[in-house]
Amino acid sequence: MRKLVLLGAGYGNMRILLRLLNKELPADVEITLIDRTPFHSLKTEFYALAAGTAPDSEVRVALPKHERLHVIEGEILEIELEDKTVLLSNGEAVRYDELVIGLGCEDNYHDVPGAAEYTDSIQTIGKSRNTYKKLQGLGGGATVGIVGAGLSGIELASELRESRPDLKIKLFDRGPRIMKDFPERLSNYVKGWFDKHEVEVISNSNITEVGEKVLYNHEEKIEVDVVVWTAGIQPVKSVLDMDVEKDRGRVVLNQYHQIPNFENVYVVGDNAALPHAPSAQLAEEQAEQIIKVLRLVWNNQPLPAEMPEIKLKGFMGSLGKKQGFAYLADRTVTGRIARLLKSGVLWMYKWHNG
Length: 354
What we know:
Elements: E1 2-7, H1 11-20, E2 29-35, E3 39-41, H2 46-51, E4 60-62, E5 69-73, E6 76-80, E7 85-88, E8 93-95, E9 98-101, E10 105-107, H3 115-118, H4 125-136, E11 143-147, H5 151-163, E12 168-172, H6 184-196, E13 199-202, E14 207-211, E15 214-217, E16 220-223, E17 226-229, E18 233-235, H7 237-240, E19 246-247, E20 250-251, E21 258-259, E22 262-267, H8 280-298, E23 314-319, E24 323-328, E25 331-335, H9 336-352
Parallel strand pairs: 1-2, 1-9, 2-5, 9-22, 11-12, 11-17, 12-13
Antiparallel strand pairs: 3-4, 6-7, 7-8, 10-18, 14-15, 15-16, 19-20, 21-22, 23-24, 24-25
Helix pairs in contact: 1-8
């Protein structure tokens, strides 16, 4: 049997499973999925889990079942490209013929002293659960610092405001205005929501050090009770340790999403060096192309001279449960409609994934 091994049950590999586990799966191919949890986690919703506005059950999706799908629950220690083997922390070695690396990412602390030791995270479901416990255990009037005002930081701050109106929330943004790379109308809407709901947005910030219940913005010392870090990501250690060409830690690929010189290995999602910012949507679009390439390879057919350009539709974000914002086809949508759009997309995703 030909062995396709998928590392990580993220958005990219879930799309691959959805497309392959049907009547078109070649009879001589079996699939092994390796992940630290026995379910698919909706990483885009971890902010709600951490804020306490969504239960754990709402950010999990069951893995598909198929007679030729084998699921291994474990931690990936090393990827040995030359030997076509994946080593797990329990000592198990998993062989592959084709490999898709979709291991996601971890926090990038940008060498800020104390950030790794004294901040909480929403990068994994386990870390999000711990952050939830920390945030919900705070007394009234406590101060929460959220470092990073990207989509994750914005959604966490707004959802936390709804679940804990008694907390003081400070959102630290490196830019001169929130969401500075997008139209000013969108930026103003988000900032207006935060002003109305008493979330302090600190622009032009530069966190230089984090200590126990304190952080430093430039030279200013700010006392906080909890700090949540949402200020950047990087590939996981097993990918960083791979001896292949990288761009800012992410793996450089050919147009077929393969690692040059190891064309039986594909990389999908946050670990891939692509001209777009990492996102669930990007991982799924990438996965669609990987599926086409795999089918051609399995049928001994030539690959196309050029792969189509990946085009993204935009993004959607929430501001609590009733308001939101979206940037779709170069158009800005705000308010209740944007929030309903996001809820609808999430519902459809869960429905399509069983």
